[in-house]
Design goal:
Strand order of the largest sheet: 1-3-2
Radius of gyration: 27 Å
Number of helices: 8
Number of domains: 2
Helix content: over 70%
Low-confidence stretches: none
Mean pLDDT: 84
Distance between the termini: 97 Å
Shape: elongated
Structural class: mainly alpha
Strand content: under 5%
Largest sheet: 3 strands, antiparallel
Order of helices and strands: HHHHHEHHEEH
Number of strands: 3
């Protein structure tokens, strides 16, 4: 084996490493785009439905974002064969070849299908988080919403008319369910 053969093998390994890195980068970019798109669409729909939606920086929403990203990674696995083909084609035209993947019609078709699936998943996850993340109102907030004073709420809590929920530190709070019940009745 001559020196030229060793040099060839080195270049081939380098090419493969660069190619694999480019495939991984394009895959990660697709995951990022899909995650962002699905989250924005799902949160917009959720915030239109909910009276008092969870805040975007809440713990529940952060958990949902992680689940969406995990699902986006699974979905983008279906894009990998096309990404590999396109990155290889890009390597033949180097250096004037970047972003060929996102402009490819077949890639776009697959990605649009993935977007629909990701949005459906994200919407379901956010709706579930909204259900489990029950809204809690401080006595002052609840009194304003119901149209009574905080003293009246304290009295109702004491005599059992409307018992307040308690935090582990024994602070009073009221729930969305209690608000719905109170809005059904004319108690004044």
């Amino acid at each position: 084996m001559g020196c030229g053969e060793k040099k060839e093998a080195g270049w081939e390994e380098l090419f493969i490493a660069i190619w694999e890195t480019a495939v991984q980068n394009d895959y990660e970019e697709a995951v990022k785009r899909l995650t962002g798109y699905a989250y924005r669409k799902a949160y917009d729909e959720y915030s239109l439905i909910e009276v008092k939606p969870l805040k975007q920086n809440s713990k529940e929403i952060q958990t949902v974002k992680k689940a969406i990203r995990k699902q986006a990674k699974v979905l983008c696995e279906r894009l990998l064969p096309r990404i590999r083909e396109l990155v290889y084609a890009e390597s033949q035209e180097w250096p004037n070849n970047r972003y060929k993947t996102t402009r490819d019609p077949e890639y776009k078709k697959i990605f649009n299908e993935l977007k629909k699936e990701a949005v459906a998943f994200a919407t379901e996850e956010i709706m579930k988080a909204g259900e489990t993340g029950e809204t809690k109102y401080k006595p002052r907030e609840f009194a304003e919403l119901v149209g009574v004073s905080v003293k009246t709420l304290q009295r109702w809590d004491k005599n059992g008319t409307l018992p307040a929920q308690r935090t582990p530190t024994n602070r009073r709070y009221y729930t969305q369910e209690q608000l719905k019940v109170m809005r059904r009745y004319d108690y004044r």
